[in-house]
Amino acid sequence: MQPADVTIVGFGPGQWSKLTLEVHDLLLQADRIYTRDPLSWEVLRELKARGKNVISLSSLYLLGLPVGELYDLMADVVARSALRYGPLVYALPGNPLVFEFATLLVRRRALALGLSCTIVEGMSCLEAMFVANNIDPGFGLQILNLVDFETKPRLIASVATLMFQVGAPRHVFHDQSEPDRCNLSWLRDRLIELDYPPEHKVFLLKPGEGGQQISVVGKVSRMERLKPYLNSMCTLYIPPNWIVT
Ligand SMILES: C[S@@+](CC[C@H](N)C(=O)[O-])C[C@H]1O[C@@H](n2cnc3c(N)ncnc32)[C@H](O)[C@@H]1O
Description:
By secondary structure, the chain is of the alpha/beta class. It folds into two domains: 6-120, Cobalt-precorrin-4 Transmethylase, domain 1 (3-Layer(aba) Sandwich), CATH 3.40.1010.10; 125-238, 2-Layer Sandwich (Methyltransferase, Cobalt-precorrin-4 Transmethylase, Domain 2), CATH 3.30.950. The chain is 30% helix and 20% strand. The protein contains seven helices and ten strands. The strands form two sheets. A five-stranded parallel sheet has the order 3-2-4-1-5, with helices on both faces. Strands 6-7-10-8-9 form a five-stranded mixed sheet. Strand 6 (141-145), helix 6 and strand 7 form a beta-alpha-beta unit. Helix 3 (67-85) packs across helix 4 (101-112). The longest helix has 19 residues, at 67-85. S-adenosylmethionine binds next to helix 5 and strand 8.
């Protein structure tokens, strides 16, 4: 593939072995690789070990800007760097268009500066979660994130659910009336209102140290007990309410 000025790639769930061949080649050919994430992902560490110039923008989070402003700034840094120093690769975890609002900001900023921009898919965490937890979306699946669910708490309880971003920080939520409330205890109350049986099992899913899938089981009525395992990379899998788990 002919590289664009800005090539946005998905590097998969984190392990080197889960890169697509296409993204592997683009990463190894790139002069400069930008990433929003810290360099802790195995893929990024492997690229550094192979002598690649990998630049993490993660310290920009320390500026404490509202998310929208922060992502505009990151998009500007990436696009201006391509304008000034030539083609680059912007590498994001998973698939760059799965829960990655910043991807379209980067593309928009690049195009506004007269640069070309391509997006190349990687394997998203969805595939890893499907395989590790025997989830077949063919039986029906609702995929949403907790931040949107908070503004419209509706679900079809008879259909399996993957609730992304269950570990999102409280300050990104619309309702600021209970700043210390744990996301999981708030979600527990909504699931009970939505008629999930209190003993219904739920699974907190996240990547482990090496990027492998981790799953911690809990129950709807005692979901807050999963709090010690909660971090910003967690998704809650809620099987359909009719299933005996
Ligand atoms: C900003 S999104 C990035 C998703 C990514 N673009 C992808 O395709 O995998 C981050 C959210 O994805 C979910 N996530 C990412 N990796 C995960 C994993 N290995 N297991 C469970 N959820 C994961 C979590 O809900 C996390 O809050």
